[in-house]
Amino acid sequence: MSTDLIKDALSLIPYGFYSITSRSGDEVNAMVANWVMQASFTPRLVAIGLQKKAYTHSLIATGGQFAVNIFRKEDVEAIKPFTKGRAKNPDKMTTATYTPAPATGCPILAGAAAYVECRVVQLIDVGGDHDILVGEVVGGDVLKPGAVTDTLTLPDLGWSYAG
Fold first, then answer.
1. How far is it, in rounded angstroms, from Cα 82 to Cα 50?
2. CA torsion angle for 140, 47, 37, 158 (degrees, to 10)?
3. Minimal CA–CA distance to 67: which of 26, 33, 25, 92?
4. What is the pLDDT of residues 84-133, one digit of tens each?
5. How many CB atoms lie within 10 A of CB 33?
6. Which of 28, 84, 93, 153 is the most exposed place for a label (fewest CB within 10 A)?
7. Under 8 Å between Cβ of 107 and 96
8. 142: alpha, beta or left? (left if phi > 0; alpha if psi -120 to 50)
9. Contact 18/38 with Cβ under 8 angstroms?
């Protein structure tokens, strides 16, 4: 444990590891995220903590749509190319293999086990370095069936994004 007990406590919250894809016009992007959860049954809503300075933030704000790509532990190599931001890897989407999602056209990345497509309901400025993005699920599919325990998480990578 460190001397920052709050950070230590927050680090014990388990997080999945996903790729959020976005589209605005012809521009597309993919980034990784872990603060993702379902927030409502009716309508089906997803909430994401989205860093304000992320390139994807601007695409979602203007395009009004996004997709959450869900990966299995065994497919960790498929998500790794999207761990670097646009500034460090500006050409990542030119080499990425993906198909446009049926409802939104957002990229569904090769290797994803499942995805949900969303239309933005709200982008909420909560006064921190991340905004809360709320999207209504308008589509989705399971591409590689499996159990929730097969889903890739930050602890599987030995990473943490908390505190």
1. 15
2. 110
3. 33
4. 888 888 889 999 999 999 999 999 999 999 999 999 999 999 999 999 99
5. 24
6. 84
7. yes
8. beta
9. no
